[in-house]
Structure formats: structure tokens, C-alpha cells
Amino acid sequence: MSELASWRKRLPPGSAAGILTCARQVLNYAVACGDLDENPAKKVSNPAALRREVRTLSPAELEAIAAELGSPLPIICAGTGLRLQEWSALERRDIDRAARVLHVRRVVVDGQVREGRGKTERSVPRQVPPTRSTLAALDGLPRRIDTPLLFPGDEGGYLNLGHWRVDAWNPALRAAGLEHRTPYALRHTFAANAIAAGIATFEIARVMGTSVLQIEKTYGHLLPDAIDRARIALDAWEAKTAAAAANDG
Prior knowledge:
Blueprint: H1 2-9, H2 16-32, H3 59-69, H4 73-78, H5 84-87, E1 95-96, E2 101-104, E3 106-109, E4 112-115, E5 126-128, H6 132-139, H7 161-175, H8 184-196, H9 201-208, H10 212-219, H11 226-248
Antiparallel strand pairs: 1-2, 2-5, 3-4
Helix pairs in contact: 3-7, 9-10
């Protein structure tokens, strides 16, 4: 057990709890198969990792990054909540301006496109409702005749996202005078704005292609007044129902 405890201490802080949980599951199987008498990993303390701070971007910061990138990409991503693998696969045909719907149909992983397959079962395909400002930013993208992609690489193919982070995103942040944060801050910004707008958690999860549990786990601290909003909504519904019943009577 002491060796397992020492091993856990050497693991990355953000991943240690999950890794030890997996180890426990493997050793449980070994016990079930009769290879071990007991699971030593059960006796090792395994506290959950501290929640990472969710870092978002203000409208002014988004505009500053967009100016340095020479692209409205940050505004579009913060307005849709797409993952990097999703926005890098967007094509012009995925935007239905009449219906004001953005279709997430595919992802790009390691330079390979996956149609109808995403990070989770909820990810792809799905629909996202872009705001008016997001549609305006999309209209500002240059239309290239050599590619259907909205955010292509220099030669028209899919962006190398690793190179893009190093060669474009990070320098744009520095030039804009902002502290470093990952491009995932754009997705966090969308979630925070959706919560502030009062959109129901299950609707946010559906639009972002994730689970309600993950939304609450990551952004639950942004919902301090959720109980109050629920109480007000239920009181209003009860009053409306009672008034309708009185009128029918």
C-alpha cells in the first residue's frame, strides 16, 4: 500500500484521482479473478482534484484577440461554445442563416475528419443557435474558392491545431496584453454567458454537446441563484395554474 501511495503522489495533480480510480478498478478485477486476496488501492487516500478556475473572456478581450489574429474567430467561438476539433471542421454549408442555426456535423482529430462522431454521443451531430453578433462575425470571414472550410489552414486544408496554438493563439494573447489562457476559454465564455442569460442547464448541455452533470461540475459555481430562479418560476406557474382553474370554475 505504501508503494501505491508514493506512486499516487508522483502523479499529475489534476489526473491523480482519476488514475488511481482506474487502478482500483483493475485491481478489483484481479481480486474477482482470484489473483489477489484484497485490493490494496482501496486503502490509499484518493481526494478529488481541486476544481480548476474557469477563465472567461470579456467582449473587449475577445475583440482585442480577434484584432491580433486578424480573424473574428474568437468572437464566433465564444458565441457558439464549439470545441477546437469542431470549429476547425466547420464548412460554409453548416451555417443556415435563414433558420439561424449552426450545424455541428463533424470533428477533426489529428488531421483526420470524423463525420458524425465527436467527443461524446451528444457532441455530433447537433445544432447551435448563433446570436446576431455571431452571425455578423461569420459574415466577416473571407470566402476562399479553394476550400469549403470556414477556418482553413494556409493551403486550404484543416488547421494543425497544435501549431495554431503556438504560432497564432499564444502570440495574439501576448500582443493583446492578456494573461495566458487556453483556447478553451472561448468555450468557457459561452457557457458563462449562457448561464448569465438564464438558459436552463439541460439546454446549455444540449447546445454544447455535453452532459448536465459536466455542466454542473464545471460551472456550478456560476449558478448561485439557481434555487431562487427555480422558486420564482414555480411560484409563477402555480399562480397561473390557480388563476386558470378559477376562471374555468
